[in-house]
């Protein structure tokens, strides 16, 4: 009922991996990336990143750790942005199979 509205459930890192950690604690990010199921794009949203498919840049890019400096750096915190584009492409393919056509924007 309404009494449950607004409640928060702590699902841990696996279901709330925040991309700013990739810059601020790169070692932790790399050590735990395999267990991640949901990525929360906190620094830059996936659609704000340069379009890339199939994997991160090689080598991965290093960016300023300071969030304000990162905001001023093009493509900052976008090493994982490729995932957003790949998942969008997969969603469009599935929708096209089911619906016959999907508009691209």
Give a short overview.
With 105 residues, this protein is mainly α. It is built from 4 helices and 2 strands.
Task: Detail the topology: elements first, then pairings.
Elements: E1 17-18, H1 20-24, H2 26-32, E2 39-40, H3 67-71, H4 81-99
What would you note in describing this structure?
This protein has 105 residues and is mainly alpha-helical. It has one domain (2-99). Helices cover 34% and strands 4% of the residues. The protein is built from 4 helices and 2 strands; from the N terminus they run E-H-H-E-H-H. It has helices spanning 20-24, 26-32, 67-71, 81-99, and strands spanning 17-18, 39-40. The chain has a two-stranded parallel ribbon with strand order 1-2. The longest helix has 19 residues, at 81-99. The mean pLDDT is 88.
